[in-house]
Write a structure and sequence with these properties.
By secondary structure, the protein is of the alpha+beta class. The protein is built from three helices and three strands, in the order H-E-H-E-E-H.
Length: 113
Amino acid sequence: MSRIRIPINPKLPGNFDCTPNENRPASHMKWWNRPYIQTYTLEAFGNQDEEFKRRWMDAWPTGTRYDLRCLDGLAWDRSTNHGSFKTIEEAMEAAKALARARNRGGANVSERN
């Protein structure tokens, strides 16, 4: 079986998550059915109140949220969020399962940080 590689925080083309699918250029379409992981940290949200910080840390104990996304047509103008995970390991497991389901198991996608 081919090794499945999932990009982490890939550099996506401009307007990637605000373009109707029928208007997407070729630079977007190369991401069709290619799962990737986007990370978010508490710091990325700026100076939030203490309640927001408490809730964030309750949900994401490491301070990082790992979102599994895929441009697959389930949303009309953006990539689909296929779940948010507490650990990179959980996110990678889900991403690989999604890739296999989308018949992308043989894709040679570079990982990026």
